[in-house]
Amino acid sequence: MRKQRKFINMSSSQFADLLDISQNAVTAIERGDVSASPMRAKRIAQILGVTLGYLYGEITEMTEKQDPYVIKMKALLMNASEEDKKIVTDVAEAFLSSRYPNTGEK
């Protein structure tokens, strides 16, 4: 879990906020001192962009390479309102189209 959290460049504090638990609880789960409940494990997998099988070590490699920035953005937007998601999308689109004007829409 810690490896994947680091892969997407997410701090334990950010991760704790998304899980609505303390940073100490995140550390305890990452160290294996405590186990996450099935519901919490599902949420952890969603945030980290992995399957439960990968999270529990049943699958040792992800079947496809994922962009850590995309995973982190999905996690950060998970609790956002639809209005906020649209604002973030519009800002990202405006920024990227100004930086890369010749890419066009796909």
Concise description?
The protein is mostly helical. The model has no long low-confidence stretch (mean pLDDT 85).
Describe what this molecule looks like in 3D:
- The longest helix is centred in the last third of the chain and has 18 residues, at 82-99.
- The protein is mainly alpha-helical and 106 residues long.
- The model has no long low-confidence stretch (mean pLDDT 85).
- It starts with a helix and ends in a 7-residue tail after the last helix.
- The radius of gyration is 16 Å and the shape is elongated.
- The protein has helices at 2-7, 12-19, 23-31, 38-48, 52-55, 68-77, 82-99.
- Helix 2 packs across helix 3.
- The chain contains 7 helices and no strands.
- The chain has one domain (2-99): lambda repressor-like DNA-binding domains (434 Repressor (Amino-terminal Domain), Orthogonal Bundle).
